[in-house]
Amino acid sequence: MPVRYSKYEPGFDDLSGADLMDMIQDFLMDSGFSDPYNRYQPDPNRGPTAEDLMDALLQALLEQDRIPEEWLQEARNAQNFQETRLGQELQRLMQRLQDEGFIRLPGNDPTESGQGFQGEAQDTRLELTNKSVDFLGLKSLRTLLGSLGKNAPGAHVTRHYASGVESSGETKPYEFGDQPNINIGETLKKVIMKGLENIEEGDLTIELAEYTAAMNTVVLLDCSHSMILYGEDRFTPAKRVALGLAHLIRTQYPGDQVRFGVFHDSAEEVPLGRLPTVQVGPYHTNTAEGLKLARKMLKKMSGEMKQIIMITDGKPSALTLPSGQIYKNAWGLDPVILAETLKEATLARKEGIPIHTFMLAREPELLAFVKKLTQITKGKAYMTTPGNIGRYVLMDFLNRKVSRN
């Protein structure tokens, strides 16, 4: 029987939506570091467009040397890139990401138009779906926890005991309503001493277990301009930590809640779906406004155990005045700004909210500020770098202990 050979047709049919997400994850997590001055805009709603996505896919394919030379030559000579074979293939890849539920391109829904990706929607702002955020979170978590072993984390320990399954090694007399987790040895001692006919309810001895509770967390990310200056991208690692933490909580601590805020000249809450594409800006560091925002967010979250995790690389340099104006002073540690920031920390302590700070820099003013902040709230402070911050944040979250007084 003769063997038939079909002509090889170049293309990207072998690439799934997950493969494409893996190729463009750096683009999606861009902090503005690649072009900190030209792309910098103090617009909280800014984000990548469909045209940016097409450029990112093109760059990724070029880096992997997957584009046939004849396609590139055709694209160079064409008056309309969208009509070239390369342009059409890139549009198909974007449509594949949308069909598999990783992205949304408003106004370009194929279920509404009955067609595929529309070229005229190139300036449409790209929206990430829960599926894409979960993908990025899992990738971040695998990277950050790669050296911590395979054991799944447990729950958060509180200062209370309960009668339950996981023994703490201590016991107490049985009371009505306790789980019947009987300590056989201690109970038999009572039986021998008093006689079986004289045993009462209080003579039963039960095992005590750790009483666990849900933890509510607000992660505050400093997105002032210093996070991408000085030749180092500090903001992208911070976002990866936040996404990894969100994935960890969702999968391992279903009773917990985590929300996110960013602070710069002011502060605002960021939905999880928009967190990957947040970029730095504006310039200054309004830590007081960030802490005030975090306290408001935690008040809306039910539960007793609360905490703020703050990631920053600079001392407070801005303050929102009662009039709404922003007072700024980037030189030294301004006593007015410091006082109002520590006032917010004092209010957090009164509300039982510790503040755990991760410093991405070691300037004296930042160290002095964080030391005072930590003393006031009885939180923890870590000097770290963008390269290892994820391990410190996640290990501290997994190993949180509350001392028993």
UniProtKB/TrEMBL annotation:
Lineage: Bacteria, Thermotogati, Deinococcota, Deinococci, Thermales
Gene3D superfamilies: von Willebrand factor, type A domain (3.40.50.410)
Pfam families: VWA_2
Protein name: VWFA domain-containing protein
Source species of the chain: Meiothermus hypogaeus NBRC 106114
VWFA domain mapped to chain residues: 217-315
